What does this fold into?
Amino acid sequence: MQIKLISTSDVHGYLAPTNYSRRDHVAPFSLSRAATVIARLTARDDDQVWPIVIENGDYVQGSPLTYFIARRHREAAPLFSRLADCNHVAAGVLGNHEFNYGLDYLDLCESSRNYPLLTANIHDDQQRTLFSKPYTILERAGVKVAILGMTTQFVSHWEQPKNIAGLHFEDVVTCAKRWVPKLRELADVVVVAYHGGLERDPETDAVTERLNGENRGSALLAEVPGIDALITGHQHRTLAVTVHGVPVTQPGMKGSNVGVITLELDANHQVTHRTPAVLSVKDAAPDSRVMAQVDPINQKMEDWLDTPLGYINGNMLVHDHLDARLHNHPYIDFINRVEMAATGTDIAATALFNDDVPGLKPHVTMREVMNSYVYPNKLAVETISGTDLRGALERCASYFLLVNGRVSVNPEFLHPKLRHYVYDIYSGIDYTFDLTRPIGQRVVRLDYHGKPVAPEQRLTVTLNHYRAGGGGNYPMYTTEKIDRRLPTDMTVLIAEYFATHPVVNAVQPTNFNVEY
It folds into this structure.
């Protein structure tokens, strides 16, 4: 028998082939294109060739469409599980972003599903059915395949407490050590579907990111024997590798690829060959069945995206993202102004989340806001010490690399996952980085209200909820230091800011300097 383990991961709500930059944009990715590839892979489905489709998380959040459904048309939320059924999904896994809109909304998104959600390492005090199934066992022609589903345990470090109330996220290696031996007794093939990635290079085993528990795929394969295939996600990487003899796939993001692990079994149900692959969807036409379901709500959302909000006096477009991060930018200054206006603080921080952030055109619509501020972040106000603030700025300063007088981005922020969103720029303080100095010693000026910041000085800062919880390896920020939270999404706060400030001046800030 040949078993095909087919996976999508980190689709992030890009159901139609567009990035929403304009109404007629056509993108080489999307769930609709992936569906065409999946249909081809599942065309033969019998006792000799057995396709099994797995949705590996971060499915219902991440695009303007997901925001539009969650905040303005919740009745459309079952669309996500209907589309998964359309792709013959046999099992689903929750990603960390599945929790962004709360558990009631997640339950609504999954309300039309005919497949199990696998949540082995998520323990629920309220014992809701959404988190009741750690694994599933599928059987065909006498062959049993067990699928164990797990989610990165780092969710609790990022998510708003109310969205995960009563949930506890167990270390995935500990969880797998408990379940895999049991599944080996129950099934011929054991598959782990993990919304998390590899923390080590698959060839050299060298550490590629901080060993903080966010990604534990390498440890899973090194410490837990008996896994026949590992499906990964979360890092947005495109991977088809073999680690410790186990095939591993990760299909990128936005439905740009489909992962396929092919297992060949002999007459005794033993795996004899293992082949991982990742298939691009760029040449696949969008699946008509998917688009027929997506189009009605997508057209409503396109109308909403064209809603005018206000006017920018000056230039707030981002043309050179490295230069903006190196010298600050009017768009960054504007987002910090919105944050400070919403919270009443006079220090705020934000990031250019990725190199696709366009900034804002002179005539601002909701489309520009949604394409520039892509996360459903909420704000938190946190009181920290001067030492904390300096430590945060040193973390920011480590984003840059200086080689032969030329500034580039530190590879730590590029590999194995692009993490431009980890680098913040602050308003309300005056500070300078000296890139000729060693990492950890680069902050050479830090003033607040014209005076140097003292180590024990108390400062109140506005951050997004991800950073306020320490996300991005900022241990100086913790939930214990949060004074208050705002319940409103940043995109709404931006729109509300334009309602009271219909004309916004684009100002080049001068509070931040970099020496090199």
